[in-house]
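seq as requested:
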Amino acid sequence: MPSLERKRGVGGRRQLSAPRLRADTPERAGLDPTELAHLVGEVHALTSGPRPWAAAAVVMAGRGPVIAVAEAAGWAVRYASYDPETDTGVELPPAARVPATLDTPFDLASLTKLFTSVAAVQQIERGTLGIDARVGAYLPEFTAAARSGITVRQLLTHTSGLRPELPLYDCPDDTARLALLRAEAPTGEPGVHLYSDLNMLLLQFVLERVTGRTLDALIEDCITRPLGMTATAFGPCPGAAATEDQRRPWAKADRGMLRGVVHDENAWALGGVAGHAGLFSTARDLAVFCRALLAGGAYGPARILGPDFVELLLTPPGLGFAVDQPWFMGELAGAGAAGHTGFTGTSLVLDPATDTFLVLLANTVHPRRRPPNSTPRATLATHLARAVI
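struct tokens:
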């Protein structure tokens, strides 16, 4: 675990402080500059041409407390709409486009799950939530989950058997949405991995019940504010990169071109705050999040988790985090790398073995969603893995 500096705190007392991130050369981070140059080149290639992988991409990568790569490419807003007749985006005039910068916020999509998971492990550390407790003990009105004996651990590891999602976006009101969730029983075998947004939605309700606070307040008070992640919050986020011209039949709702409001239809139906989606953030803020976890839960004078509970969070199969998944981690996978992807084009990987991190924010769904392709994510991670000296 990286060493902690000692700083003088309130009243002259000494307190531990984890090193903060700083920008420096690849060599100072113990990374090969040639390999990182290839990584940067790939980022620009991903946003180039008439049909780029993403309209915009922002990458931040480093080792230890050093940010060795910080690069923005492409357009945060490039298209006015999507034309299904030609299967192309209707481009805005050059003067109306918005370039991506290092400060551009992106819709994190399922990276939100990582914050919900950290919030849950914080409550486990404090003793207000039992990792193997049954969900029904906290939410008896969720009768189907209660009868099935679903546990908090199963929600965090996607082994509850709940299906991937429900059409909450088609419900007429909040009462109908809540009734649908409360009646939902597992369709898969308990204990077998089945990735599901419903796990994080139920976990949201559990957290709100045990803390008496809404999820957005809980994440702000216990994670983002202590870490100084001032650009991370649930929407609306007016300056964010645009996402999709969301219309049926390719989408599940008719909302038009989206910018600054959550892309996920279920999170939108729930008011923009959901356990599985809804957060917006910048690459710098997510680098701080990675650094805190790599440093055993601390960043600067703040501590959001104890080292033992960070280990619990990241130990295979991971609580909320995916561990050692080559399909998006490339050659970083294999020795305990942890992270996640988001449907909008986002991803995050942190590798305790090499003390490295990689944040990729992109809007691959601008102007419309396409079949997922994580090869670029894996390629970037491989460049970082090969850069480690």
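The CA atoms of residues 85 and 250 lie 13 Å apart.
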